[in-house]
Automatic annotation (TrEMBL):
<feature type="domain" description="Hemerythrin-like">
    <location>
        <begin position="60"/>
        <end position="172"/>
    </location>
</feature>
<dbReference type="InterPro" id="IPR012312">
    <property type="entry name" value="Hemerythrin-like"/>
</dbReference>
<feature type="transmembrane region" description="Helical">
    <location>
        <begin position="237"/>
        <end position="255"/>
    </location>
</feature>
<feature type="region of interest" description="Disordered">
    <location>
        <begin position="1"/>
        <end position="34"/>
    </location>
</feature>
<dbReference type="Pfam" id="PF01814">
    <property type="entry name" value="Hemerythrin"/>
</dbReference>
<keyword id="KW-0472">Membrane</keyword>
<protein>
    <submittedName>
        <fullName>Cation-binding protein</fullName>
    </submittedName>
</protein>
<keyword id="KW-0812">Transmembrane</keyword>
<feature type="compositionally biased region" description="Basic and acidic residues">
    <location>
        <begin position="7"/>
        <end position="21"/>
    </location>
</feature>
<keyword id="KW-1133">Transmembrane helix</keyword>
């Protein structure tokens, strides 16, 4: 690999060739002049990332789960029914995960990180492309091109994971101490638990528009997820009320977290 990596103490590493692959499967990237070269969170232990409840570890667990499900869908070993279940689980996790990032993480990152606007803008564009591809699959599930669209979506998801773990999330580690990383992690988890779980290409990618339009949609998404094909009216009404209340609490928590001044 060339020059030895520096330790966690300074949070930096020597530049890798853009085609050189890290042990986690991540490849190096070109960086703009003056940009900080940071250690990917995929290459650091839980303690160095603020512990199991930190936003960095929560993100990494979701990314690992997504990767495992995409591999399982693609490896040919699953039945058609199993692949249908895997696809639904992937879609639900992709959209809830991304919505929570855009509501909680990226506003904070834009505020505290050099080049934060550029970095988050690139990831938001990836999210929109993933949204559009999955919406196409959901709209036309019998189209013979569906498998191709799904593989395109998987490739974009993996690129998004690399960008986040190698470039965006290390900047949160540099900006905040362990306690704040855990606080952000709790806010992100609360939003993720009540976020939309299906593609909605017309929903903005940034607050407050994403929350104003996405939270009501999340209630209906979760009704569809939990009560497929309908169900007793009382159960649907109960889920609707619980979902709306939880979503409102999550958004308030996220806004408070994003507005707190940066502290280490």
């Amino acid at each position: 690999m060339g020059a030895a990596l520096r330790g966690d103490s300074d949070g930096t590493e020597p530049r890798r060739n853009r085609h050189e692959q890290s042990p986690s499967g991540h490849r190096g990237h070109h960086h703009r002049a003056g940009a900080t070269v940071t250690v990917s969170i995929s290459r650091r232990g839980a303690a160095a990332l603020g512990g199991g409840g930190s936003i960095l570890m929560r993100q990494r667990r979701d990314h690992a789960r997504l990767d495992a499900m995409m591999n399982r869908w693609s490896d040919g070993g699953a039945t058609d029914d199993e692949r249908d279940v895997l696809w639904r689980d992937i879609v639900q996790l992709v959209f809830s995960h991304a919505f929570a990032e855009e509501t909680v993480l990226w506003p904070v990152l834009r505020r505290v990180a050099p080049h934060g606007e550029e970095l988050t803008g690139r990831v938001e564009a990836e999210h929109q492309a993933i949204n559009d591809l999955i919406a196409r699959v959901e709209k036309s599930p019998d189209d013979p091109r569906c498998a191709e669209w799904i593989q395109e979506a998987f490739a974009l998801i993996r690129q998004d994971i690399r960008d986040e773990e190698d470039e965006l999330l290390p900047r949160l580690r540099a900006a905040f101490g362990d306690r704040r990383l855990r606080s952000i992690g709790a806010a992100w988890e609360a939003v993720r638990a009540t976020a939309p779980t299906r593609p909605h290409p017309g929903v903005p990618r940034r607050p407050p528009g994403n929350a104003l339009r996405g939270v009501p949609l999340s209630v209906f998404d979760r009704l569809r997820d939990r009560v497929p094909g309908g169900g007793p009216a009382a159960r649907r009404a109960s889920l609707l009320a619980c979902g709306a209340a939880a979503a409102a609490v999550a958004v308030v928590l996220a806004v408070r977290t994003a507005r707190r001044p940066a502290r280490t």
